[in-house]
Every structure is written in C-alpha cells, then in structure tokens.
C-alpha cells in the first residue's frame, strides 16, 4: 500500500499546505481519502488523475474536506472522459442524503459508467481490501468517520477530524501507519480536534508502528513544536505530513 499526502493543511489558505486529501494506492487500485480544495490539481502534480480513481472515502462533510468533491463529480461527466470501471463514493452516516441534496443538484452523477454513493458500513471488503470505519467525535452537526485499510497483513488508518476517543485507540491498534489530525499545539487545543500530545498518547496506546501528524493550522513557531510535544508521549517512528509526501508500506 502507498499513501501520498495531497493536502496536509486545513481550510486556512496556504501556499504550503492544501486542504485535507490523501491518495491511497492498493495494488492497481487508487482511492481518495477526503477531497479538499485543490485535490484535483494535486492529483495531476503527482502523476495521477481523477480519471483513474476507483473510489473515494469522505471522513465528514465540513467544507475543507469536500471542497473539490463537486468539481470532481462534475468533471466525470465532461466530454473526453473514457472509463468503464465503477467509481464508489463512501461517506459517514447521512452522506448519501447529503450527496443527493447538496452535490447532485449542481453536479449530476456521471451516467457513462457505474457511479455509486453509499454510507460506509462499519466493515466491508472490496477486492481483497478490508475497510473498517469508526465514529469519531468532531461535530454536533455532521457525523464523522475514521477509516482503516487492511491488505496483505498491513494496516493504514486515517483519523479524519476527531477529538479524543477511547475507542479510537483500539481502532488504531497495530497499524503500520496512522495519519492523525493534529490541528493545534497542546496549549491551544480546539474542541473536536487532537493535539500533538493526544496524538502521541493514542499512538502509544495502540502500538502504532509509524505516526504521521497532519491537518495543521498555522502556528506561531516552528513546526518542530508539533514533533516535540508528540514525542513526549510516543517513542515510535514519527513525522509531519507535507503536501506530496509519499509513504509506502510493503506487504
């Protein structure tokens, strides 16, 4: 499995960090996790394309995580797009209704190939890829989900946006790679989001092999402060996400 960070930031405009999005490659299949503004261009920059995606997983429907979802659906109807394989769009509970009410009226789903939208179950299998979803505490208005992808004995977890959750440690257990949102430093914690210390504590409890912090709001000070505060809790392999950073997990 391979992950490429498309956007490691938030909804705050930044020339360095785009809005949240990640490319996941599993064998010959390609998926998106979230689809923030700028995702379609970032796909082109890494040598990929929305044309080749097999599906996408939306953690929640806050604007910074779905900014390019409507443009992507619209682009899939444009002349010159040749594809036959299905595209499946997954989201948290209520996502199908959200798509039908908000997205479809301005970007009708394509009709030249199978295009499916569904609320993600807690566990399912697609072509040998096991996918699990876990509810996360983030917003009172929208449901949120973390996703875990298991393939050939390896596991990658994307937290989406979340506050502390005891169950999330179990969901992360033994992951080869965990991408945890880390919006602010410990002293500036915002409700509904994690901080470096909380990320480190979760990763340590779950015995995560590699932790990648992501979803950064701008801070006053060097990015190394995120690492320093997380390292106080977690002694494993640790890094900060950067746009277009690539991480590969061997079988």
CATH architecture: 4-Layer Sandwich
Kindly provide the radius of gyration, computed on alpha-carbon positions and rounded to a whole number of angstroms: 17 Å
Distance between the termini: 7 Å
Q: Give the number of domains.
A: 1
Contiguous helical run count:
7
Biggest β-sheet description: 7 strands, mixed
The total strand number stands at 14
The percentage helix is 10-25%
Question: What characteristic shape results from the CA principal axes?
Answer: globular
CATH homology group: Ribonuclease Z/Hydroxyacylglutathione hydrolase-like
Helix-strand string: EEEHEHHEHEEEEEHEHEHEE
Characterization of the model:
Helix content is 21%, strand content 29%. The protein has helices at residues 39-45, 63-66, 69-75, 95-103, 166-172, 196-206, 224-231; strands at 2-7, 21-26, 29-35, 55-57, 87-91, 115-119, 123-126, 129-135, 145-151, 154-158, 177-181, 210-214, 237-240, 246-248. The chain has 251 residues and is an alpha/beta fold. The longest helix is centred in the C-terminal third of the chain and has 11 residues, at 196-206. α5 packs across α6 and α6 (196-206) crosses α7. β11, α6 and β12 (210-214) form a beta-alpha-beta unit. The protein has a single domain (2-248), classed as Ribonuclease Z/Hydroxyacylglutathione hydrolase-like (Metallo-beta-lactamase, Chain A). The strands form 2 sheets. It has a 7-stranded mixed beta sheet with strand order 6-5-4-3-2-1-14.
